[in-house]
Design brief:
Elements: E1 4-8, E2 24-31, E3 37-44, E4 65-72, E5 80-87, E6 99-106, E7 112-117
Parallel strand pairs: 2-7
Antiparallel strand pairs: 1-7, 2-4, 3-5, 5-6
Length: 119
Amino acid sequence: MRKLLLTAAALLTLGATTPLSAKEIKFEVINKSKYDVNEIYASPAGNDSWGDDIFTEEQWLKTDQSANVTLTVDKADVCVFDLKFVFEDDGDKDETNNYVVEKNINLCETESYTLEDEK
């Protein structure tokens, strides 16, 4: 089974200990995995509703590439999210192999996340 981890890069935003006052959260996703990412979904932590893909139709995240992502939130004080990364279909009939979910990521405190293969 394809297992991937999302690890936080150590790029902390200065003064990010207070809740974000804007309705947009901007962060960079770096793909160091061996799989292309087709879709990214975000949900406030613990919420089972994923909403829309936050990538545009033309946007894919190939291996060894990065992308800047802007997440629009309804509540300005929400910082902790679950992220779902959906990978390029490799023809595997087991769809659980085509995505990974990372939970409880504080996007107000981190500017960058790196997606890596599990070691």
